[in-house]
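quick one, 371 residues, struct below
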Amino acid sequence: MDRGWISVGDWAIAVGVAATLLVTGLSRQHSATIPDLLGYALLTAGGLALAARRLSPVPVLAVTGLCAVGYQAAGFDVPAVAYLFAVYAAVRAGHRTAAVGASVTMLAALPLAALASGLHDTGEAFAQARGALELAWLIAAGAAGEALRQAERRADEAEHTLEETARRRADEERLRIARELHDSLTHQISVIKVQAEVAVHVARKRGEEVPEALLAIQEAGREASRELRATLEALRDDDASPPRGLDHVAELVEKAGTFGLNTTLTIEGRRHVVPAAVDRTVYRIVQESLTNIARHGDATTASVRIDYRSDALAIRIDDDGRATQDTAPTPGVGLLGMRERVTALGGRLRAEPRGEGGFTVQAELPVDQTS
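---
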């Protein structure tokens, strides 16, 4: 796994292998000639190269292999320990083809290097090459790297599965909360609202002055009913009703006119099929935005723009309300729900007052047009 840096442990292993190779080479009583000095340098370089085995496993595989061939040709009958470490690192990183190709090359090159060192007997050269790189140890190094790679992959898959399970349980909990809210609060709030409206109606019919407290209860009941309905919609999509999406945005724009809001819808780009989650999210963004404008924006006009792009779907809702950058509203449940939906799809959301006045909601949702 590439980590972008070399740890102290990596250096410790590299230095340890280099020291082992160098001590083994020195124990063979070589002289201080130029070929022998080159052999010592290759022994050291091959070991130290292992420090970068996690960052660049394939180049390290090549370097350690060349060093092993080089010091064998210089007459150093020393096992290719550094190369075995490099094979392990390369296979662990998923470069199995490179490891197999390099190993086949090594098995062919080492006997030639032994012959180049001065041996004239082919059988002896092959024996020295076999001692430098035992096939069993080579297979063991590759198998160990593959086993650890598979273990890490399974661990990653298990972690991903746990995240998916946690997300599914969170969705189930949201649905449970929605059902409990519906069962426990909807009926009581409806009763309060209806009773208050009946009391106001009866008082006005009798010509009596309606108490301010009763009017406040009536308005609070209406607002509570609207807020509860919006909260339930944010917590869940009602499975009993068909899913709402891009095809229903025009209805939202038309319905906004009943609130005294002059709303226009503009669709740009070539329309194409988008994922179902994106389809529903666009509807929810437009719905929540227009609802907030009608409730809090003090606006007379609004515009909804949907832009079909090759790799994304962009939505923008603007109004001419009184929101300014100095009086930015506190994000509520609706805005937080929008941001949560957009983020879950890997998109971006921006909701803030416009410089020229009013409020803007902009979202960009990635789409995959592989079909």
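Residues 10 and 51 are 5 Å apart (CA to CA).
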